[in-house]
Design goal:
Layout (H helix, E strand, L loop, with lengths): L2 H10 L7 H13 L6 H8 L13 H12 L13 H17 L35 E3 L9 E3 H12 L3 E4 L6 H12 L9 H24 L14 H14 L4 E6 L4 H7 L5 H8 L18 E7 L2 E7 L9 H15 L8 E8 H6 L1 H9 L11 E6 L9 H4 L16 E5 L3 H18 L3 E6 L17 H9 L3 H12 L4 H17 L7 E2 L26 H11 L10 H15 L6 H14 L4 E5 L14 E2 L6 E2 L12 E5 L5 H13 L4 E5 L10 H8 L2 H5 L6 E5 L14 H6 L7 E3 L4 H13 L6 E5 L13 H5 L6 E2 L12 E5 L3 H12 L4 E6 L1 E3 L3 H7 L8 E9 L5 H11 L5 E7 L10 H16 L3
Parallel strand pairs: 4-6, 4-7, 7-8, 8-10, 9-10, 12-15, 12-16, 16-17, 17-19, 18-19, 21-22, 21-24, 24-25
Antiparallel strand pairs: 1-2, 3-9, 5-6, 5-11, 13-14, 18-23, 20-22
GO molecular function: oxoglutarate dehydrogenase (succinyl-transferring) activity; thiamine pyrophosphate binding
Cofactor: thiamine diphosphate
Pfam family, one: Transket_pyr
Length: about 950
């Protein structure tokens, strides 16, 4: 607008007087991001007069914050004359600018491809300073240089070395002043220089020689074979060895590592200590004769021990499928189990390390989910070291605009205020320093920290790929670029730390180890009993005998404990009514409902001294208001858990309302159970169909982990399932998907229909000496169904009945039709048959659909050898549910010469209808059809 018009408007508007604070905030928002204010305000601010010699206005808030910090430090008060005051403020602004934005001008890219504009905030002129001020002394505020003042020239040099060298530190997004001051002290006190001893430098060089040597050896011996080489990111090897050594020195007993395929073979041989001859055999197609499918070599896990000054550290590299980031929560879950076993709630004894690709960490949603879990009570492990092998290429995509929307691939870490240390992979000493700072920060503050190892990929996505086809400019540079080993060896030779002959000797010695098939890791030690003993759970089958029964007296004792409420803990009236009923159930006045039976199962397990761990989005209460394992005081909000008060010295009981995620939480619990075979670990979906979001975990870990990797897992998954007229997304847990994954007795799929069945099913998962996953189609309406009740006597047998025969007193010889079914529909069939007063139809429940109980079903059918009509009845559409996957099992069990038909909803693309009236009509029709005798 014209100048005169704007002036008149300003004088009469809300821009005057008492609104200045509001306007200042708007203006600072505009300085941060011009798009954050309205177009009208942008026009006003753009019309403001420019100050000669200044590119942009400096934010007042930064100045205020700096002086507030100075005010807390009386020993560093700024006492200057009025003439020098402006310069002094500008010097403090300069320090702050380097802390905030120095990383943007750091020397991070080994290839020199990053085209980054000079940051104006880092220029002396931006702060009204120049080289003419270099000899002047200024107070340096909180800059950790060990002195209160410095000449500007020395300060400027120190700032550039600290923040614009081979380490670019991002930490000013952290709100904790203590954490920021800690990081400033560590970086600024040494000006981001590692200052390694000669022996330490030699260790770094050995790590680089081993990284480079293995890749060259494999490339020469197995040309063109896929190995997803580490070349270009070689500094990962000395980084990991430094992390493990330093962790062990500070008392860690275990380190669990998760990574995708890039560089995995190098880590296996040069960190974990896998014998290279075994790797060479795998490349040659040799392998031990096994009955499992196995997996490709760059998905394999490994365990070993690694000696450190603090003692041996047990290493575990998690098995990983091709999904690039799904292993992250698996690793964290495994770490949590190890910490729980060691009664360590701070994370000091077990260190998790996750290794990411640059495109994957930004692109895969499970990364965000795992970051979000990092401080949640159910999932925290004292912080994770997250390493990004940033080779600047996502498969064939090298343009960051195609792989992410932020400046860095690590921007996702800012959501949990994790510090991010970007480091040039061609400067291994900077890598070591960043590693030391990262581990010490994690140990000090128990929080995640990220190391962004900026490097490159010397070959294509795999060794058969031609990268120049899609990245011609990058690979012109890569082909000429010396290896990290060569660069560092030359550096050490030039500074006199070693001779060229010594470097050659080290390279030759490593080659000799490979030729002889010897372990290449000096710190490797034979594995001892650091982890849990799986021996009691090996070699067992489904039918092995075990101690099943539990006495009635013990059940009554446990039931009384489960139903007991403290007098000084008032609960909601509905919960009070539920617990009054539980007291009656405990005394034998009432039969037990589902919630009581389930809690009683947990009580029996913790009474054995075993752990129970349950997570889910409503796990404490239960989505359908049935569990109430956590009782909330209605006056002060405190929580009481009866299952924590079963007896002195009982097993732990942990129930957590989880973060709102399926895939990361289920992967976490899978990792937990692969590291903890004892006790009962449960993941409960809020609705069974929500497990769709975690399908990758079912596909790549739960159903196939034993077949691919020999990894046992006793995880139990409760998936609420049942057609209640709640629409397509709240009816089916997609039973058919789990049955399709079943083979080789890899897991169990059960649909219990009574409280006694759920009690014995859950106990069976612990007392049976076999550990395989259990998928449960758990109920909704049956939680309070008047017929779905059980006695203590039914529970005391300890037997889960895979098949339940006819319960009504009907003449079996008069039966003309047998109906097979599972789950809720059984009660609808039973009630309708009773209303019909039919005695010519028998109803048999299949409570375990896999492994299919063929012998048990045949035993039940002994009384029905005369029957010709057999039908499978299900609520789900014909192309869903158990029909397609299980009909061959039904046919194999029925008498010869008979036939089997289907009754249920017709095939459908959606799991259920969305209208209650249609649902009711369909449900009644399938029940009537099942009971009709032809």
């Amino acid at each position: 607008m014209p100048e005169g018009t704007m002036k008149a408007w300003l004088e009469s508007s809300h821009l005057s007087g008492g609104n200045t604070a509001y306007i200042e905030e708007l203006y600072e928002s505009y300085l941060d991001n011009s798009q954050s204010v309205s177009e009208q305000w942008r026009e006003i601010f753009q019309e403001l007069p420019k100050i000669e010699g200044a590119d942009v206005e400096y934010r007042h808030s930064a100045i205020r914050d700096e002086f507030r910090e100075l005010a807390k430090q009386p020993s560093r008060q700024v006492v200057v004359s009025s003439g020098a005051d402006a310069k002094q403020v500008k010097v403090l602004q300069l320090i702050n600018a380097f802390r905030f934005r120095g990383h943007q001008n750091a020397n991070l890219d080994p290839l020199g491809l990053w085209l980054r504009d000079k940051v104006r905030d880092l220029q002396l002129s931006h702060h009204d300073l120049s080289e003419n001020d270099f000899d002047k002394d200024f107070n340096i505020g909180s800059f950790a240089a060990g002195q209160e003042s410095m000449k500007l020239g020395d300060l400027h040099k120190a700032l550039k070395k600290t923040y614009c060298g081979s380490i670019g530190a991002e930490y000013m997004h952290i709100t904790s002043t203590e954490e920021k001051r800690w990081l400033q002290q560590r970086l600024e006190s040494v000006q981001s220089s590692a200052n390694l001893s000669k022996e330490q430098k030699l260790d770094v060089l050995k790590g680089l020689i081993s990284a480079d040597g293995l890749e060259k050896y494999l490339g020469a011996k197995f040309p063109g074979a896929k190995r997803f080489s580490l070349e270009g990111g070689d500094s990962l090897i000395p980084m990991l060895k430094e992390l493990i050594t330093r962790a062990g020195t500070h008392g860690a007993k275990e380190v669990v590592i998760g990574m995708a395929h890039r560089g995995r073979l190098n880590v296996l041989v040069n960190v974990m200590g896998k014998n290279p001859s075994k790797l060479f055999d795998e490349f040659g197609g040799k392998h031990d004769e096994v009955l499992t499918s196995g997996d490709v070599k760059y998905h394999q896990g490994y365990s070993s021990d690694f000696v450190t000054p603090g003692g041996n550290v047990h290493l575990a590299l998690a098995f990983n499928p091709s999904h690039l980031e799904i292993v992250n929560p698996v690793v964290i879950g495994s770490v949590r189990a190890r910490l729980d076993r060691r009664n360590c709630d701070q994370g000091d004894l077990v260190l998790p390390i996750t290794i990411h690709g640059d495109s994957a960490i930004a692109g895969q949603g499970v990364v965000q989910e795992t970051f979000n879990m990092s401080q949640a009570r159910a999932f925290k492990v004292g912080g994770t070291i997250r390493i990004v092998v940033n080779n600047q290429v996502g498969f064939t995509t090298s343009n960051p605009q195609d792989t992410r929307s932020g400046e860095y691939c690590t921007d996702i870490a800012k959501m949990v205020q994790a510090p991010i240390l970007h480091v040039n992979g061609d400067d291994p000493e900077a890598v070591v320093l960043a590693t030391q700072i990262a581990l010490d920060y994690r140990n000090e503050f128990k929080r995640d920290v990220v190391i962004d190892l900026v490097c490159y990929r010397r070959h294509g996505h795999n060794e058969a790929d031609e990268p120049s086809a899609t990245q011609p400019l990058m690979y012109k540079i890569v082909k000429k670029h010396p290896t990290p080993r060569q660069l560092y060896a030359d550096k050490l030779i030039s500074e006199g730390s070693i001779t060229a002959g010594q470097a050659d000797e080290l390279t030759a010695y490593y080659r000799k180890l490979l030729d002889e098939g010897q372990c290449t890791v000096e710190q490797w030690r034979p594995m001892t009993a650091h982890s849990v003993d799986w021996t009691p759970f090996l070699g067992h089958d489904w039918d092995d005998e075990y101690e099943k029964e539990i006495s009635i007296d013990k059940l009554k004792e446990l039931a009384a404990k489960v139903a007991k409420l403290p007098e000084d803990h008032p609960v909601h009236s509905r919960v009070k009514k539920l617990y009054d009923d539980r007291k009656k159930m405990a005394s034998g006045e009432k039969l037990l409902d589902w919630g009581m039976a389930e809690n009683l199962a947990y009580a029996s397990i913790v009474d054995m001294g075993q752990r129970v761990r349950i997570t889910g989005q409503d796990a404490g209460r239960g989505t359908f208001f049935h569990r109430h394992a956590v009782l909330h005081n209605q006056e002060d909000g405190s929580a009481y858990m009866p299952l924590k008060h079963v007896r002195e010295g009982q097993g732990p009981f942990d129930v957590h309302d989880s973060v709102l995620s399926e895939v990361s939480v289920l992967a976490f619990e899978y990792g937990y159970t692969t590291a903890e075979p004892a006790g009962l670990t449960i993941w409960e979906a809020q609705f069974g169909d929500f497990a769709n979001c975690a399908q990758v975990v079912f596909d790549q870990f739960i159903s196939s982990g034993e077949q691919k990797w020999g990894r046992l897992c006793g995880l139990t998954m409760l998936l609420p399932h049942g057609y209640e007229g709640q629409g397509p997304e709240h009816s089916s847990a997609r039973l058919e998907r789990y049955l399709q994954l079943c083979a080789d007795h890899n897991m169990q799929v059960c649909i219990p229909s009574t409280p006694a069945q759920v009690f014995n099913m859950l106990r069976r998962q612990v007392v049976r000496p076999m550990r395989r996953p259990l998928v449960v189609m758990s109920p909704k309406s049956l939680l309070r169904h008047p017929l779905a009740v059980s006695s203590l006597e039914e529970m005391s047998t300890g037997v889960f009945h895979n098949v339940i025969g006819e319960i009504d007193d009907i003449d079996k010889k008069a039966v003309e039709k047998v109906v097979f079914c599972s789950g809720k529909v059984y009660y609808e069939l039973l009630e309708q048959r009773r209303r019909n007063e039919q005695e010519n139809v028998a109803i048999i429940r299949i409570e375990q659909l896999y492994p299919f109980p063929e012998k048990e079903l045949q035993a039940v059918l002994e009384d029905y050898q005369h029957v010709k009509q057999f039908v499978w009845c299900q609520e789900e559409p014909q192309n869903q549910g158990a029909w397609y996957c299980s009909q061959h099992h039904f046919r194999a069990a029925i008498p010869a010469g008979t036939y089997l038909t289907y009754t249920g909803r017709k095939a459908s693309a959606a799991p259920a209808v969305g209208y209650m009236s249609v649902h009711v009509k369909e449900q009644q029709a399938l029940v009537n059809e099942a009971l009709t005798v032809e």
